[in-house]
Design brief:
- It is elongated, with a radius of gyration of 24 Å.
- It is an alpha+beta fold.
- About 20% of the residues lie in helices and about 25% in strands.
- It starts with 6 loop residues before the first helix and ends in a 5-residue tail after the last strand.
- The longest helix has 16 residues.
- Strands 7-6-10-8-9 form a 5-stranded mixed β-sheet, with helices on one face. The protein has a 3-stranded antiparallel β-sheet with strand order 2-1-5, with helices on one face. A two-stranded antiparallel sheet has the order 3-4.
- Strand 1 and strand 2 form a beta hairpin.
């Protein structure tokens, strides 16, 4: 004899299964804590809009420039070098490009580029959105963790659902974004070190509000 089930029961079961599979189920491994002396450097710093640099041209102070801000369009202007693209370059790449252009006017120029204030290229920034105390875009720094980012923005907002937060990260090998679970409430309110994870340039932390 065939057993029949109420349609509403099947519907509720389908909805429940969809709800369980909708959210991210993967959590990143906890960040490892190293002493300051053993922290590893990351890839070369990439210049971004509004970064401030100082450019020295050895034995040519009239061609040097202090505290030059990268314009919003990503370019800089110094004596004999007009509208050179700086965004997306490392300081070494920028100094080499300036040297090549100055070599048209002086013999074997020696150029150095020093970054005074860091903002970072947009793809390298860490973004915190949603119900954080102070949503913001932060310049990524070496060995940065979720805890560092949350301290920088003042923690969670009053109505934040910290343990339902997510981290979105681009996976170059897969060619798409991947979403991971975060337990920000456990990290910030309980001091759970297993809830702290390492960040990578371009990560986005999304914090939803609590459901009432």
């Amino acid at each position: 004899m065939a057993v029949s089930y109420p349609l509403w029961g099947i519907a509720l079961g389908t909805v429940a299964l969809a709800a369980c599979s909708a959210g991210p189920s993967t959590q990143l491994p906890p960040a490892t804590f190293n002493s300051a002396s053993s922290e590893a450097p990351t890839e070369d710093y990439i210049l971004g809009p509004l970064d401030e640099v100082t450019i020295h041209v050895w034995r040519n102070p009239e061609l040097s420039a202090e505290k030059i801000q990268v314009r919003p369009d990503g370019r800089i202007t110094i004596p004999l070098v007009r509208d050179m693209v700086a965004v997306g370059k490392t300081p070494t790449q920028l100094q080499n490009d300036i040297r090549d252009q100055l070599s048209e006017y002086i013999e074997q120029p020696i150029v150095s580029v020093i970054v005074n204030q860091f903002n970072g290229a947009l793809p390298q920034q860490i973004r915190i959105t949603g119900a954080g105390a102070e949503p913001a875009a932060l310049a990524y720094r070496a060995n940065m963790t979720v805890l560092d980012a949350m301290i920088a923005v003042g923690g969670l907002g009053e109505f934040a659902a910290g343990n339902r937060a997510t981290l979105t990260r681009y996976d170059g090998a897969a060619g798409k974004n991947k979403v991971y679970r975060l337990r920000l409430k456990d990290l910030l309110n309980k001091g759970d070190p297993s809830a702290n994870v390492a960040l990578k340039p371009g990560d986005t932390i999304s914090i939803p509000e609590s459901r009432f």
